[in-house]
Amino acid sequence: MKLESKIPEGPLAEKWTKHKFNLKLVNPANKRKYDVIVVGTGLAGASAAASLGELGYNVKAFCFQDSPRRAHSIAAQGGINAAKNYQNDGDSVYRLFYDTIKGGDYRAREANVYRLAEVSVDIIDQCVAQGVPFAREYGGLLANRSFGGAQVSRTFYARGQTGQQLLLGAYSALNRQIANGKVKMYNRTEMLDVVVVDGKARGIITRDLITGKIEAHSAHAVLLCTGGYGNVFYLSTNAKGSNVTAAWRAHKKGAFFGNPCFTQIHPTCIPVSGTHQSKLTLMSESLRNDGRVWVPKKAMPGLKSQEAMKLPESERDYFLERKYPSFGNLVPRDVASRNAKQVCDEGRGVGSGLAVFLDFTDAIKRDGEDTIRAKYGNLFDMYAQITGENPYKGPMMIYPAVHYTMGGLWVDYNLMTTVPGLYALGEANFSDHGANRLGASALMQGLADGYFVIPYTIGDYLATIGWNDKVGTDHPAFKEAMDGVNERVTKLLNIKGKKTVDEFHRELGHAMWEYCGMARNEEGLKKAKKIIQDLKAEFWTNVNVLGGASELNQELEKAGRVADFIELGELMVDDALNRSESCGGHFREESQTPEGEAMRKDDEFTYAAAWEYKGDNQQEALHKEELKFENVKLTQRSYK
Amino acid sequence: MKITLKVWRQKDTNSKGAFKTYQHDHVSPDMSFLEMIDVLNEELTHKGEEPIAFDHDCREGICGMCSLYINGRPHGPLQTTTCQLHMRSFTDGQTITVEPWRASAFPVVKDLVVDRTAFDRIQQAGGYINVNTGGVPDANVIPIAKKIADEAFDAATCIGCGACVAACKNASAMLFVSAKVSQFALLPQGQVERKERAEKMVAQMDAEGFGSCTNTYACEAECPKGIKVTNIARMNREYFTAMLSSYQIETKGGGD
After folding, report:
1. Residues B78 and B147 in one domain
2. Mutate which of A276, A283, A352, A389 to disrupt the B interface (most B C-beta within 10 Å)?
3. Based on the domain organization, do B31 and B156 belong to the same domain?
4. pLDDT tens, residue by residue, A74-132
5. I need a surface site. Which of A178, A627, B89, B156 has the fewest CB within 10 A?
6. Whole-model pTM above 0.90?
7. Which chain B residues contact residue A352 at CB under 8 A?
8. What is the ipTM of this complex?
9. HSE of A561 in the Cβ direction (CA atoms, 13 Å)?
């Protein structure tokens, strides 16, 4: 099968406008004849479901949480980028495009990224119209800040809880369509398979998490807006429920998986406190605007915040400011994380040894405690709550943690996967961030896909197939898929082994973090592959899932998800092994510059890897989508 | 730390529940309350006893999914979400009673899990501004005084966890509903549908079986996001104004 990116012809700035004109339209009176399934209700899913409902399509939306408002987009803190240039500081659509392409270490499509920058301005207008309370200046206009390595102030924010406010905006738009009868919402319902007939996605199989009932839903198109797979590492900043199952089921039904090894390790998280740790908490990257990152020049094992206050300036190493004078503490996430790891590997870590300081002393001296409280109050409170320490009185301790996955289902310019009629939006797809995502770009991409891309591109597909081209749930393929899901549930419950689901998940996470985390090498990756294969075999003979199939059974839910994470883990390792260059968040120790920075191999690896599932325990097949750069020149990223 | 847990166990909505006591000897003060239950659940699984069902997701205090009525208080002794409550807030040897939210509008699903879809239905009744995607004015066309924007933001931070209902002796949802009514009543974008919104959301709140407000302020005291009862006062004003000049009369106006 040949990968067709469907990138439109023509100059970069005109591609999307032209493409929108060339896309087929569905007659307004015919829209009600089409059914669309949306899985996931985060920024991408809620905005897509609401927008498609507004257009007149019949939408069924699904989420595994008890309410669509709980989707993990809600936890995004820092902000959302948009090329509004309200600050008159030289921003433009082209600059946002350029920064995003460069930030992604030249492993994303030019056309997609340009479109993202282009529609970013519409997102802000839309959210304000919905009543999203963004931060404002005293004159009543919107406030901006510089964020995560950007040299312009283009980030819109709502204190430290921008994701919450944007999601509640999208949730309100979704609620409006639910009230209008255009969206039917299924809470506490998990998608467990995609149904493909005659090569097209025709529906999904779900499990009602309260009654355990397995059900079939058919539609003309299926949208997966199911987020990322960071929980493959067990410890991550993702919500506990975030999982890869929907995407992985789709992958097994023919959707190629793009760049699975591209994961983002976020530099500013609260360090691990013990073996009971169930998840990690991110402190917004915006903290790096005012906080200075440092460790002692000489190793001082166990150094605590209070003692650190007494350490003279001359004995401190502000390593980011030292190594990257022009970007300082605002270097992109991959660079900041790797440097934190490096100083800790040198033995200069503080606290447990796996932590560096993030110090606000100078900012508080300069701006006053009240100003700092107004900017970051909720983050400081959160830090105090979790660690039991007061961050106004001594530096915070931070350490990198898995936060986001740039990889995901491969999609073309229309956001369609390699299965016709099956789309992937938001973090679930692989498209716009290349090998590293810049801060405040995830919210932008989720909403761009849902509000402003899919409403256009889906029409083209639907108009092409016609409303008659639908398969009902009475088709044997639905029955077959339901039987498959039922069998799997029964199998998991009947193993009755000795280990809990979490024990398997922690072992998987440990192997992934150790060998496929911030730094990777061939030897480690090969070791990880073996560990994961063994773990998979053990899982299916020794996992212990109590309770029944026809009831709320949270262990059963977790077991299904962990089984899929194990398989995904192996594919991530394969992808990381194949890509012997370093780029963005993917750092191969074999490929670095003399200064220890990531070194790309553009001659060999200027492509997106798209993996094809070949059957149980079979090596997946690699397809390559060559990336063509017609507008930007590939350079080695430098933030010095 | 060692603690004794008295946990409400209930098979499903229609079964009768009861407290079950567990001795938990492996508690670290750095654990969150939910991590403490995770550890217990793994122990139970190893013993062949079904783990305790409880709602949770983000574990960073923002999704609003975790609940738990701990020693007679929603989300326990601190004014925070249960996921942000750490065991250092308890003492060695303490007995801790854990119940689900108690309100007839929040039926128990299993153990500590309750059904809060009534909150969604109240939002669906009017918790939005009627705008479609696209075709909206530039964001800076609507200046909003910082003071107003900040006040609207304070109301908008509600996480929909239901602690206000659980805290209230009448199981009233006034704080939850008033937070959304206030956000839009304050903002210029919300003015057009201001009256209709208040009427519809209050009507749905009543239909769901939530109780009345008798001004005890227990909701504010327990709200993990510090939503103020002044929002309830504002909603009352909005509601009475709406009732006195009902939107139905206004929309009939003009013409004949």
Report:
1. no
2. A276
3. no
4. 999 889 999 999 999 999 999 999 999 999 999 999 999 999 999 999 999 999 999 99
5. B89
6. yes
7. none
8. 0.96
9. 25
